[in-house]
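[scheduler] slot 2 assigned
[scheduler] job type: sequence-to-structure, two independent chains
[scheduler] chain ordering preserved from manifest
[runner] begin chain α
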Amino acid sequence: MKRWLPAPRLSLLLLLVWLLLNGSLSAGQIALGLLFAVCIPLALRAYLPDALRLRRPDVLLRLLGVVLLDIVLSNLTVARQILGREAALNSRFVWVPLDLREPAGIATLASIITMTPGTLSCDLSADRRHLLVHALHVADEAALIATIKARYETPLREILEC
């Protein structure tokens, strides 16, 4: 089965998207969708990542809640900061050391940081041990690093790594 469908969920997603985009459940569209759903993953098999195993779905739900709350609170904080005195802002770049080694986890961490207003992930060191983050206001660099590690990186490690 794995030989013909190296990524069954991707194949199902491709079929569903094809049918939704075409707005038709005709036999021809289903056949063409099935053809794409089988051929595309086969052609891209070498580029497909290994399947991730989420070890702690409860932590994933908690992390989702934390991220959503942080996005809302950060929006309010950034609005207050940009409407205030410009001289009060202390924006800077900070290298955040990473304990996370899973590439998908690092990408997720970078995305979370970028989605949170006031911060932006900018670069990853060549050895993947540091993430460069730009923050709109940094009162304490160590506190920023500790917050990122505690609120986002630690839960991601629990979810993706042993």
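[runner] end chain α
[runner] begin chain β
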Amino acid sequence: MSNLDQRPAAAACGGLTEVSARPVRELLTGREVALGEGTVVRRLLPGLGRRMVGAWCFVDHYGPDDIAEEPGMQVPPHPHMGLQTVSWLHEGEVLHRDSLGSLQTVRPRELGLMTSGRAISHSEESPREHARLLHGAQLWVALPGSHRHVEPSFEHHSELPAVSGGGGLRATVILGEVDGAVSPGTAYTPLVGADLTLAAGTGARLPVRPDYEYAVLTMSGEAEVDGLRLAPGSMLYLGCGRTELPLRADVDSGLMLLGGVPFEEEIVMWWNFVGRTHEEIAQAREDWAAGGRFGEVHGYDGARLGAPPLPSGRLRPRGRTR
């Protein structure tokens, strides 16, 4: 997944200054961004009001889009550094290719997890023969300093653990752990990602950790999270200090729970790179332009994505929220 903005703003994230140590309810408003050819996403992280939730540093929600007569998602080869990408679908398919030689179709409720480490490149596209609807989320996880230069890798997990709560709640564990169920996906910081389905008439309380900060993204339906009704495509930041999360739905609804221990390090995120300094980001941009470090994606029908120009000022980490 990529940030295709040709004038990307730098997002300075991380650090503990702006983490709420108590429960809060902070509604995050997304902005529409074009992703490749024909796909528009709602970007919820980073934003002016909130830039990280645990190690989660980038969240796009898209669809449901009718692509029956369209090519669907078409994201050319592009680089990543210092992060993991998480592909999560409710409807449709995405074909992943990367510079390691991976070729994998990711389908609904399957985990496509790419660890960029020091450097990787990949492309994403709807298969030539694809389902009518495309609906999902694309997310990044910032790698901590101790692991941000690991060797790149790609994981695909078609079977994920799930737990059922009382009253029509089911939680599929994407990353981390929920109520004793542990995802097979590799994580480098204490965090959680879970897909929640709530049947109509559900009233339930999901156990959570008080040392984690959390946010909930509404994928479909119109559920109540901690008493606040959320429309599809909206995200609610919840802070820390909770032991359970009240959930209610009058109609069938789908949510994503994102959380983790607040990310202590300050990072600089620009375009498709997560680093720590201006010089590191500038070198990554130069290396992508020169070729070599990020490898080559074979099989995509089209040119790779060119890097946008760096902003005129220096890139500096300045804090979690603004």
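[runner] end chain β
[qc] chain β: The two ends are 24 Å apart (CA to CA).
[scheduler] slot 2 released
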